[in-house]
Amino acid sequence: MPDKRMLFSIIVPVYNRPQEISDLLESLSSQTDKGFELIIVEDGSSVRCEEQCRQADKSVDVKYFYKDNEGRSIARNYGIERAGGDFLIFVDSDCILPPDYIANLRKSLTQNPTDCFGGPDAAHDSFTDTQKAINYAMTSFLTTGGIRGGKVSMEKFTPRTFNMGFSKKVYEKVGGFREMFSEDIDMSTRIRQAGFMIVLFPDVAVYHKRRVDFKKFWRQVHVFGMSRITLQLLYPGSMKLVHWLPAVFVIGTVAMIIGSFFWKWMIIPLLVYIAALWIWGIISTRSLKIGTMGVGAALVQLTGYGTGFIRAYVWKILLRHGRDINDEIERRRGK
Question: Which of 5, 173, 279, 287 is 20 to 30 A from 197, comparing alpha carbons?
């Protein structure tokens, strides 16, 4: 039987997101397993969520803290230092947890003990069509290779902070998050290098709202692409084939479009891929509209990440402006 004495500390950094916190609190109040505390760290918000936390403290064990704005990693570390749980759980403020999240987590840890874990994310029925389309783009094997918690993956599973946890022992040995882009991948890499096992718990899922429009989504994934080069500089050899695919897609697409002016059949591989995205999007989302929007989201995801990757690769590797990457991170107060 799962250990009922195990306490979980859910740590959430928040910046000007009171409505999102309300949705998260509502989902936590419905948990079937109440063996957790919630630590909200308000990172210098001008629009605070203190009142929402106060209203929820009758149904959820909420600890609210306000601090000056320094970044989400520093906010998470601030929460870690004030956590009393055996395991530190990290979700984003734009997440909703299913009622059995804690119960499934406790069961999974009892059946498969580990020091670090993560779970997948999905779209809730209440999300907008755009959010559902973006979720498809970020979780489909056809766009990300299943690396974000898919059943089939082209790379070892790496937890992300929208659904990630590790034991206090990990924190004591590895330290906290560093203030950088893709700080969760950096943290997971340091955990693995320290000799801890990382496990995917497929049944411990969250609903993740992600971005609300394609413009914001493009900016986000563009930064993700740039940060992959930073991670390669920090951890030489960490970059795998799957990380190159969006850049290959961008270069290949440009080549096919230009080449089609001279030989019209050259565009066919791109059209076949788009058709596959569309068909699988309709099947997986069970919606013609969302599946069609998912094609657009997938193209935004691939071009945003791919151009960010290419941009950073040229600047930091080919032009050698990334040699002092650790010093750059230190200046951002991450260590």
Answer: 5
Whether 82 and 39 have beta carbons less than 8 Å apart is answered as: yes
pLDDT at residue 333 tops 60: no
Strands 206-208 and 121-122: parallel
Alpha carbons within 13 A on the beta-carbon side of 113: 5
Residue 77 has pLDDT above 80, yes or no: yes
Place of tokens 């906290």: 176
Q: What are phi and psi of 44, to 5 degrees?
A: 70, 30
d(CA 323, CA 321): 6
Three-state secondary structure string covering the chain: CCCCCCCEEEEEEECCCHHHHHHHHHHHHCCCCCCEEEEEEEECCCCCCHHHHHHHCCCCCEEEEEECCCCHHHHHHHHHCCCCCCEEEECCCCEECCCCHHHHHHHHHHHCCCCEEECCEECCCCCCHHHHHHHHHHHCHHHHCCCCCCCCCCCCCCCCCCCEEEEHHHHHHHCCCCCCCCHHHHHHHHHHHCCCCEEECCCCCEEECCCCCHHHHHHHHHHHHHHHHHHHHHCCCCCCHHHHHHHHHHHHHHHHHHHHCCCHHHHHHHHHHHHHHHHHHHHHHCCHHHHHHHHHHHHHHHHHHHHHHHHHHHHHHHCCCCCCHHHHHHHCCCC
Asked whether the predicted pLDDT for residue 148 surpasses 80, the reply is no
Do residues 312 and 223 lie in contact, with contact meaning Cβ atoms separated by under 8 Å? Answer: no
The CA-atom distances, in angstroms, between 324 and each of 70, 174, 230, 320, 329 are: 22, 22, 10, 10, 9
Residues linked to residue 206 through DSSP beta bridges, in sequence order: 121
**Is the pLDDT confidence value at 147 over 70?**
no
Judge whether 137 and 301 are in contact, CB under 8 Å: yes
Question: How far from each other are the two terminal CA atoms of the chain, in whole angstroms?
Answer: 39
